[in-house]
Amino acid sequence: MNKNTTKFDNILSTSPFYGHVNHEPDSSKEQQRNTPEKSMPFSDQIGNYQRNKGIPNGAFLHSKVYIIGSGIGGMATAYYFIRDGHIPAENIIFLEQLQIEGGSLDGAGNPQEGYIIRGGREMDMTYENLWDMFQDIPALELPPPYSVLDEYRLINDNDSNYSKARLIHNQGKVQDFSKFGLTKKDQLAIIKLLLKKKEDLDDLTIDDYFSESFLKSNFWTFWRTMFAFENWHSLLELKLYMHRFLHAIDGLNDLSSLVFPKYNQYDTFVTPLRNFLKEKGVKIRFDTLVKDLDIHSNTGGKIVQALIVDKDGEENKIPVTKDDYVIVTTGSMTEDTFYGNNDTSPVIALDNSQSGQSAGWKLWRNLAAKSSIFGKPEKFCSNIEQSCWESVTLTCRPSAFVEKLKEYAVNDPYSGKTVTGGIITITDSNWLMSFTCNRQPHFPEQPDDVLVIWVYSLFMDKEGNYIKKTMPKCTGNEILTELCYHVGIIDQAENVIKNTIVRTAFMPYITSMFMPRAKDDRPRVVPEGCKNLGLIGQFVETNNDVVFTMESSVRTARIAVYELLNLNKQVPDINPLQYDIRHLLKAARTLNDDKPFLGEGLLRKFLKGTYFEHILPTGGEEEGEHESFVTEQINKVKEWLKGIRI
């Protein structure tokens, strides 16, 4: 027994639960019933009771932890090894192929050469694992004892996020974005998808399932541009997203359900977390490529015995004992990024015959070649045309574009408050171009007269409406000209170009995690039989969470630590709002463009004046024609019953 728990030995030594914890409970399969065999919280029973510290079963003072990749998943792994595993921070070593930590959470540049952010993060209040970690990470700008979470709440609690120009068309005119525009058939298709079992959706695409009317609806425009879904992406992942964000569906059109950081993703999250880990004593080795793992297998399981490393062009082995741990980030969204600027387009020297061969994918491929338990990376990195898009970062001095931006902004762009409230999508753009201006300054040292704006497109293989080229073949100035055309200031494009620095980024694998998949294509966080190896990031399997979020990376990190150390603590499943009748009723009405859903009138009559009346969505007392008919029939039955004498 652990020396810390000696006072509890009489309980722990006879417990059928201690040391046999399901570290990743699954709410989609659990019937929530209290029984003598149920000692821990239900799978998605979040809250303060889950904040206990999971006391390790043994001491790990001499265990080393090698974390391959220093993205948010890797950094979160280090945090949980320290906080919940009690492993000394100086025993934790990052091996990073790049020269900077943060992985895909980047943000860099200056006003002279231009800033660049390859992507951004639309955040949600239900990211339980992310906020569990950042509630303990010292704030970037607030003094002690405040945390990153405290800073985040201070901003978002006092500066509401919403859009007043979610859609534009006809060269800059704001388009009505109040309605989803779903037919009854398409609403029913969404409901049927929510009811389907996950196992029935292997390798299906979105356009395998939905009709043309759905794919042309405002709902799909909102959804696909907010989350970067394409019609050929995984239907299973779309289903998981719909469950995950069901509570936010009524804020989908105006983006009022989102919360955003004060600064870019690197300064907001990576900088304070990196500082915390370094102060604790965590080590990081840059320019170090881990090419493969030496894994020994026998009847007892699989043990990593060495890391095969390339450092400064020399290959060597780092020995690993059975008491050490290895954590691998599988795959990479931003691997092989190609860059351009005002005068150049990205030089894309990669095709499907070469894809998935670079460092960010090679290690996973080498693991998969050893055993099927490590998944099938080729399902995700072998079709660049369907997993790529290009983003653009604009560093803007005052110009005609900045003046046009003010017409779409919730607040003055220079006020420090919410600007566009999220992306503005140009619905008649051949590229399906979107742009956003987050709170400014977007970088802590950004000058007062500079704005940083982010642009991306989903249909890059199409010719532009004004510039007759596909987006990847365009220079930054040509992309800027196309944007000027769509916001109705093409006659002032020269002024905009003169005052704007453009940096472009073509990312071959940016939505590769959305590619159609089947069971076992992605490995589990701790693959079957592995004793000292965990896999994290966007390309591993969890029960119900989605990908392409910081939360999913942190979740996989936490599961890896709890499972490998066999902590007496669980990682709660996703927030259970999908099972909340209030959100289900709200979603039904929202999908119907805020008109009564079938049966709503009867439900209102039944609950009116009761304790549960408030669970109904706001929107009036009107009834549909069908409901009036049903009410009439019920009244007839009541009158008939009155005539019966017993």
What does this structure look like?
- The protein has an 8-stranded mixed sheet with strand order 6-5-14-15-16-13-17-12, sandwiched between helices.
- A hairpin with a 2-residue loop joins strand 8 (288-298) and strand 9 (301-311).
- It has helices at residues 9-12, 72-83, 128-134, 148-157, 184-195, 206-209, 212-215, 218-227, 235-244, 265-280, 359-370, 378-381, 400-408, 476-486, 493-498, 550-565, 581-591, 600-607, 625-642; strands spanning 65-68, 92-95, 108-110, 114-116, 167-169, 173-174, 283-285, 288-298, 301-311, 314-319, 325-329, 338-341, 389-396, 424-426, 433-436, 451-457, 500-507, 533-536.
- With 646 residues, it is of the alpha/beta class.
- 28% of the residues lie in helices and 14% in strands.
- Mean pLDDT is 94; it is low at 623-627.
- The chain contains 19 helices and 18 strands.
- Helix 2 (72-83) runs parallel beside helix 10 (265-280) and helix 3 (128-134) packs across helix 16 (550-565).
